[in-house]
């Protein structure tokens, strides 16, 4: 991590921590921000966050490793999470899964070499009457067909082109 | 897509501002009494009487008190809270104001599951609009000296955080591992302060009750399970969606309403619920019979029930927090057992051991996740042993 990046990160996390008067209840919001902006939470980032909240880095690691939306390994800019739970399973999520793998050229659990997409399974998304359901970052798609997969991916490829300079800002 | 039976309780007419102003003009004890008389039980699954919970939290000593809305909705097959959060957010926040007034809380938190982040904007807009109308903040809803506000906390993808003590751990910035109970959150909750944790639907129902009366509410449902309940219906039926039905509806009648008469089985209560087979369709859905947080998954005549059991067990093995052995070891072992059954390689003696392991989990696990993880497996096995043990060619 470059020194300037580190300063930037420290600044962002401190801003969030301040809102919680540096109380530990601000830890998750801080980590969620780091995850969103940097697509993972590196050991250096965990150290920074720990220093700001004045807790041990092992504590921060414990939290990061617990939650499936937080990760130490680098994820793609867009994380595609396909629901694998029963109602979507019965709505033939398998066909969508196969098409996602084919269209992205990766398997579940992998990230495309250009760092754009990570493909994952997730559990029930609360869209069970409209399955198969999936999330792309924080956008939800329902009644996804194998045919629609390519178009959905395309939207994000385009989106990324348009927003490349606005990366990393706090949401 | 989402269809519903309207105008019973949850989806009946109610102006939040008017209801709140009227309620907050009454005494706390009177309001809690009304909720208690109504017989309302928690809509999140466990069914604890809401009036009693608010009374305990109200009586508990504490400098600060909290009202927490459990919007973690992670039970497979449940989506009614999403609909409420989308279309009835003001009703929810109104219900939280009511609870805060009843127990004497100054701060409210909505724990919103990470998967619902896309609802955040709408919820924040509703909060802002309510602040503008003084339905939140100082002299809240016209009540001099009563101050209450709400903020939203986003989860990060962990089913177990729906368990109320794990939820509190998570709010405090820890791993979402359930605590030993007692102490209960009503005395020792968020930051060690008295806290009332309730489901989204519970808060909204409570607001309707204080506005329209306990007697009105009790007109619906059974004597032990009063009122109506929202059901999230999915699977093999013609009309999936969110429905409001009186408590005590039979499985058969529910199936008729949603166009699932052909079903060979119904999973009531999600992965942690129970699989109800055709010969039991006369059972009623109520706390005293088949209890549920509202998840109804319909299985058509050709569904492979072992695959259903496997899907549920994979869910639990993945979502177990791993803190206690019966659950961590049990979910993995049952999943392995299901795979043996799938391959037609499970000795009968071992199958019986698996069932008894499941029964141990029901008793010895620390929280509701491990306690209910074997339910689906055991009830599916009971009802579909013949199908599960049949040789593929012999079917
Ligand atoms: C593993 C597990 C997950 C749970 N998930 C939820 C949930 O998503 N939403 C909910 O309201 N209650 C959930 N509960 C129940 C809560 O612990 C708690 O009983 C409930 O929030 C209390 O609110 P109520 O009395 O209004 O139902 C869960 C319980 C367990 C054991
Ligand atoms: S029962 Fe399972 S989820 Fe609950 S505390 Fe034990 S290991 Fe964790
Ligand atoms: S089962 Fe896929 S959204 Fe609920």
Provide an overview of this structure.
In chain A, helix 1 crosses helix 3, helix 3 (43-53) crosses helix 4 and helix 6 packs across helix 7 (146-163). Chain A has 2 domains: 3-66, Orthogonal Bundle (Arc Repressor Mutant, subunit A); 78-160, Glutaredoxin (3-Layer(aba) Sandwich). Mean pLDDT of chain A is 93; it is low at 163-171. Chain A is built from 7 helices and 4 strands. In chain A, strands 2-1-3-4 form a 4-stranded mixed sheet, with helices on one face. Chain A has helices at residues 3-19, 27-38, 43-53, 57-66, 86-90, 93-104, 146-163, and strands spanning 78-83, 117-122, 134-136, 139-141. With 171 residues, chain A is an alpha+beta fold. In chain A, strand 3 and strand 4 form a beta hairpin. Chain B is an alpha/beta fold and 395 residues long. Chain B has 14 helices and 9 strands. In chain B, helix 2 packs antiparallel against helix 3 (50-59), helix 5 (89-103) packs across helix 8 (200-212) and helix 11 (305-319) packs antiparallel against helix 12 (325-342). Chains A and B meet through helix 2, helix 4 and helix 5 of A and strand 5 and helix 11 of B. Bound molecules: flavin mononucleotide (FMN), iron/sulfur cluster and FE2/S2 (inorganic) cluster.
């Amino acid at each position: 991590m470059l020194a300037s990046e580190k300063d930037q990160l420290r600044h962002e996390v401190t801003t969030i921590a301040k809102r919680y008067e540096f109380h530990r209840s601000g830890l998750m919001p801080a980590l969620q921000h780091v995850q969103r902006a940097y697509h993972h939470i590196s050991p250096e980032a965990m150290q920074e966050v720990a220093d700001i909240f004045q807790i041990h880095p092992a504590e921060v690691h414990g939290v990061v490793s617990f939650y499936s939306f937080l990760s130490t390994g680098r994820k793609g800019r867009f994380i595609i999470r396909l629901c694998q739970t029963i109602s979507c399973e019965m709505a033939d999520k398998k066909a969508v899964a196969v098409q996602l793998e084919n269209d992205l050229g990766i398997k579940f659990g992998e990230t495309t070499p250009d760092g754009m997409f990570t493909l994952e399974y997730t559990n029930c998304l609360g869209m069970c009457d409209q399955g198969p359901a999936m999330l792309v970052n924080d956008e939800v798609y329902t009644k996804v067909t194998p045919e629609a997969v390519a178009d959905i991916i395309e939207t994000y490829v385009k989106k990324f082109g348009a927003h490349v300079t606005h990366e990393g800002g706090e949401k | 897509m989402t269809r519903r039976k309207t105008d019973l309780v949850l989806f009946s007419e109610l102006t939040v501002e008017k209801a709140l102003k009227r309620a907050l003009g009454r005494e706390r004890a009177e309001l809690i009494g009304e909720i208690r008389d109504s017989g309302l039980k928690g809509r999140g699954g466990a069914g604890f009487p809401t009036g009693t919970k608010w009374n305990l939290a109200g009586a508990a000593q504490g400098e600060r008190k909290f009202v927490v809305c459990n919007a973690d909705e992670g039970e497979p097959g449940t989506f009614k809270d999403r609909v409420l959060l989308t279309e009835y957010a003001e009703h929810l926040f109104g219900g939280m104001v009511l609870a805060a007034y009843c127990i004497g809380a100054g701060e409210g938190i909505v724990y919103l599951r990470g998967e619902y982040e896309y609802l955040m904007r709408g919820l924040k807009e509703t909060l802002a609009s309510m602040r503008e109308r003084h339905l939140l903040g100082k002299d809240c809803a016209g009540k001099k000296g009563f101050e209450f506000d709400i903020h939203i906390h986003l989860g990060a993808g962990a089913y177990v955080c729906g368990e109320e003590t794990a939820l509190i751990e998570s709010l405090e910035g820890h791993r979402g591992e359930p605590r030993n109970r007692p102490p209960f959150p009503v005395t020792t909750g968020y930051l060690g302060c008295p806290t009332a944790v309730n489901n989204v639907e519970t808060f909204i129902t409570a607001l309707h009750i204080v506005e329209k009366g306990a007697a009105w509410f009790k007109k619906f449902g059974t004597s032990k399970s009063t009122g109506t309940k929202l059901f999230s219906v999915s699977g093999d039926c013609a009309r999936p969606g969110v429905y409001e039905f009186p408590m005590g509806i039979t499985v058969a009648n529910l199936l008729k309403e949603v166009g699932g008469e052909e079903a060979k089985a119904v999973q009531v209560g999600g992965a942690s619920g129970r699989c109800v087979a055709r010969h039991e369709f006369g059972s009623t859905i109520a706390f005293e019979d088949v209890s549920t947080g509202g998840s109804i998954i319909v299985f058509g005549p050709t569904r492979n029930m072992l695959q259903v059991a496997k899907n549920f067990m994979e869910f639990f093995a993945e979502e177990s927090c791993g803190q206690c052995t019966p659950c961590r070891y049990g979910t993995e072992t049952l999943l392995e057992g299901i795979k043996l059954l799938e391959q037609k390689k499970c000795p009968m003696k071992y199958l019986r051991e698996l069932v008894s392991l499941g029964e141990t989990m029901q008793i010895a696990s620390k929280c509701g996740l491990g306690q209910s993880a074997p339910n689906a497996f055991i009830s599916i096995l009971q009802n579909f042993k013949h199908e599960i043990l049949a040789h593929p060619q012999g079917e």
